TrEMBL record:
Keyword Transmembrane helix annotated: no
InterPro entries listed in its UniProt record: dGTP_triP_hydro_central_sf, dGTP_triphosphohydrolase_C, dGTPase, dGTPase-like, HD/PDEase_dom, HD_domain, PHydrolase_assoc_dom
Pfam families per record: HD (PF01966), HD_assoc (PF13286)
GO biological process, one term: dGTP catabolic process
Highest classification ranks of the organism: Bacteria, Pseudomonadati, Bacteroidota, Cytophagia, Cytophagales
SMART domains listed in its UniProt record: HDc
Designated name of the protein: dGTPase
Alphabetical keyword list: Hydrolase
Length: 448
């Protein structure tokens, strides 16, 4: 059984074993939050798709505004859960942990939950995967890497990319083990012999094969057990991070859809009413603008969902620590059916709306085009040198200065090289990816 005194330990990934830095004014977990806020990968979220790619309306959410809102909800969930934990386990007070610090862990982890997402949202994830699965310039790499590495490449996963970025020396974040574990919703690699479909934590994968040692180190430090030879249990706070995301995208994507005119206001009210229950008063909707009503309904709905989620966490906390509970908290709360209906309507009217599908289709073309141009140039340089052209040389000069362009060849496994290429392109903002695609394809020219 996992123990909270270890699960909430203050050690940092990348620090010397046994070393704990001291902060005069901030807790270690507040430091995590601040480091994330000021990091380049987090800032890039301001121009990455939430639902509507390349939004022209200021009120539509990007990954940045979504992540800030998820973090806010996560802090509320974590602080409430922390109050319960300190009451249930008085010995935790000896560690110096507070309910606010537990809230900070969830807030920091929630802040990073989308940090590994590529341009153009989930369409971007599919586009990267499809490049290696189907595109000639991607498939040529298969014979040069190991099977488990190829599975990684053919199944790009934003959660795993996020973990890679958070433990990377490139960004120097050195987050606490607790925050990293709370971030990891899917504690397994991509290639496993058997996936237990009943376990939510095995639905996807949470780290690439070359981060396996990093994740093992994390679990060893925090005392997180394995559910099988290839998979681990979730850190219990990861359930709260997941719930914060579920609450925000369910309610706020609906709000955006209504604002965009994809879901009418009356339908939106009917969808939210079962969550609000007795708090819903139609009379209060009169004599106010639609935007004011949407804001009020959203706030009330999120508040109710936070309360229900905390109650579910309290009920199943001990089972989480034993590794027996493995479901989404928002699937078992009283408002679960209302959230499911919102999800179904959102799929029909928002996620599959013409404006979203058209821009997603464009996103596929952009990412496939970038990967094919850079991937082919790299392959020609190291594996088909007779075809390494002036155009290839020009393309490779567009890579970052720190891109690892030396030491590769026919006898060297290029998996780290390909991971660096994926880091480069998946880290782009939507607009930067679009503009670079236009330039390398000769569609537009700098300054024109």
């Amino acid at each position: 059984m996992m123990k909270w005194d270890r699960l909430l330990a203050r050690g940092r990934f990348g620090d010397t074993p046994g070393f704990i830095a001291t902060q005069a004014a901030r807790s270690e977990f507040e430091v995590d939050y601040d480091r994330i806020i000021f990091s380049a990968p987090f800032r890039n979220l301001q121009d990455k798709t939430q639902v509507f790619p390349l939004p022209e309306q200021a009120f539509v959410h990007t990954r940045l505004t979504h992540s800030l809102e998820v973090s806010s909800v996560g802090r509320s969930l974590g602080k409430a859960a922390g109050t319960f934990l300190l009451e249930k386990y008085p010995n935790l007070e000896k560690t110096g942990i507070s309910s606010s610090e537990i809230g900070s862990i969830v807030a920091a982890a929630a802040l990073t939950h989308d940090i590994g997402n590529p341009p153009f949202g989930h369409a971007g994830e599919e586009a990267i995967s499809d490049f290696f699965k189907f595109h000639p310039s991607g498939k040529v790499w298969e014979s040069h890497v190991r099977p488990e590495q190829w599975i990684d490449l053919c199944n790009f996963e934003g959660n795993a990319q996020g973990f890679r970025m958070l433990v990377s020396k490139q960004f120097g974040l050195k987050l606490t083990y607790a925050t990293l574990a709370a971030f990891t919703k899917y504690p397994r690699p991509s290639m496993i012999s058997h996936r237990d479909v009943a376990r939510r934590s095995q639905k996807k994968f949470g780290f690439f094969i070359n981060q396996l040692a990093d994740f093992e180190q994390l679990c060893s430090f925090l005392g997180i057990d394995q559910s099988s030879e290839e998979c681990w249990y979730r850190h219990p706070l990861a359930f709260l991070v997941e719930a914060a995301d579920d609450i925000c995208y369910s309610i706020i994507d609906l709000e955006d859809g209504c604002t965009m005119g994809l879901v009418d206001f009356d339908t939106t009210v009917k969808l939210l009413a079962p969550i609000l229950k007795e708090k819903f008063d139609p009379e209060k909707l009169k004599n106010r603008s639609q935007a004011q009503n949407l804001g009020a309904l959203r706030a009330l709905a999120i508040g109710e969902l936070i309360e229900e989620t905390v109650e579910a966490f309290i009920q199943y906390e001990e089972s989480m620590c034993k590794g027996n509970f493995d479901k989404a908290l928002t699937d078992i709360i009283p408002s679960a059916k209302a959230l499911q209906l919102i999800s179904e309507i959102s799929v029909q009217k928002i996620y599959r709306s013409k404006i979203v599908l058209e821009k997603e289709a464009a996103g596929f073309q952009v990412l496939e085009g970038l990967f094919s141009v850079f991937g082919q140039a790299l392959y020609h340089q190291f594996y088909q040198t007779e075809q390494f052209s002036g155009q290839d040389k020009s393309i490779l000069r567009l890579l970052p200065e720190d891109f690892p362009l030396k030491g590769w060849g026919a006898e060297v496994n290029p998996y780290p090289l390909l991971r660096s290429l994926i880091d480069f392109i998946s880290g782009m903002t939507d607009k930067y990816a679009l503009n670079l695609y236009r330039r390398v394809k000769g569609i537009s020219f700098p300054g024109v």
